[in-house]
Amino acid sequence: MNEAVHNYIRTKKIDSFQKLRLLLFLHRHPHMRVSSQELAHRLHLGDTLLIETILADLRQSGLVTQMGNNYQLPDEPELKLYLQQLASAFEHPVTRQELLKQVKPTRVPAPL
């Protein structure tokens, strides 16, 4: 995975497996408009509140757009390019592991 993709993940705050999974789902269905409830069902997360929090984060980063109660990817060439690179990285076991390490949230040690 190239450095530009690493920087994009950091810049756009793709900092959890759930965010990555949601983005890759929308990448596979670029014209789909979907509600948070439908995403929770389709991604087998079952937690609509979690999905709504993720969607709010992704919307703030410019990675999804909201139309009423539905969400979809914006029609932006740069976004499509980076999501294609993320999808390709996710398909290969070695780069998938690199990708998962990068999106894993860092834990802050508890005070002693």
CATH architecture annotation name: Orthogonal Bundle
* Structural shape: globular
The number of helical runs is 6
Mind telling me the CATH superfamily name?
Answer: Winged helix-like DNA-binding domain superfamily/Winged helix DNA-binding domain
> Using DSSP, what is the number of strands?
3
Low-confidence stretches: none
Please tell me the total number of domains: 1
CATH topology: Arc Repressor Mutant, subunit A
Radius of gyration equals 14 Å
Largest pleated sheet:
3 strands, antiparallel
Mean pLDDT: 88
Structural class: mainly alpha
Text of the CATH class: Mainly Alpha
Order of helices and strands: HHEHHEEHH
- Give helix % range: 55-70%
Strand order of the largest sheet: 1-3-2
Give a description of the structure.
With 112 residues, the protein is mainly α. The chain has a single domain (3-102), classed as Winged helix-like DNA-binding domain superfamily/Winged helix DNA-binding domain (Arc Repressor Mutant, subunit A, Orthogonal Bundle). 60% of the residues lie in helices and 7% in strands. It has 6 helices and 3 strands, in the order ααβααββαα. It has helices at 3-11, 17-28, 36-42, 48-60, 77-91, 93-103, and strands at residues 34-35, 65-67, 70-72. A 3-stranded antiparallel sheet has the order 1-3-2. A hairpin with a 2-residue loop joins strand 2 (65-67) and strand 3. The longest helix is centred in the C-terminal third of the chain and has 15 residues, at 77-91. The radius of gyration is 14 Å and the shape is globular. The mean pLDDT is 88.
